[in-house]
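Q: Got one fold?
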Amino acid sequence: MWLQGLGKLLLVAFAILIAAPLLIVLFTSMKSTAQFYASPLGLPESFSFHNFKQLFTGQPMLRYAANSLIVTVSTVLLVLGLAVSIAYGILRSGRRLGGVVFALFAVGLMVPSQVNMIPIYTFIRQLGWSNSLTGLIVVSASVLLPLSVFMLSGFMKTLPREILEAGEIDGAGDWTLLARIAVPLCAPYLAAVSAFLFVIVWNDLLFPLLLLSSNDKLTLPLALLQFRGEYVTDYPMLLTGVVTTAISMIVLFVFLQRYFISGAMAGALKG
């Protein structure tokens, strides 16, 4: 009995540990700057949404949100299209050739993208894609492709080979097998990977900071840096932007949680 009580106590402590920072961020977004510096961890004097109104009236947040949405959706679609094709090719290429291709993408996971910042910037500038959403999309997709291939290759191995062989007997080619059999069967896995990629790209700050310079091209995480001053940081407005940015992630998880959980559980059980 005491073990169960200890377990419940640990769960409560863990829940408090997770909830406390979230509540601090939410309460801070409802304070003025003077209230925050007077009582950083205290409750707001009144639950006001003035900061949210000021955020959207004082800054072109809708433009920043549109930029983030364009970059995120385009990157996820591009990565998924390439990764699912490559993962299927690895599955169908045989153990030797497929193993070599898989190993090349696995090596890509070992190289941190941060060490390639200078070559990436130079290459994108030579292509004429600096300070453009196109260059950011291409760079983000290339960085996330090895991870996506690694994940989808594991999912592809769970496909019943009998179904693919039956399709071959009926005369279906590889593209038909991919589009009509492999992709529908991998739908929960694709949803899980897409949600994972969406979070990474939406919250990415490094590559927008490296590649974007004009205000009309900023993404949401990069736009939040405008509230950080050299001497004073407007934390209430900054955390208001954080709350606004996080809402999209919450909505995404609400709609895709069953696919995300089923895909993660299936990968764990099959692995």
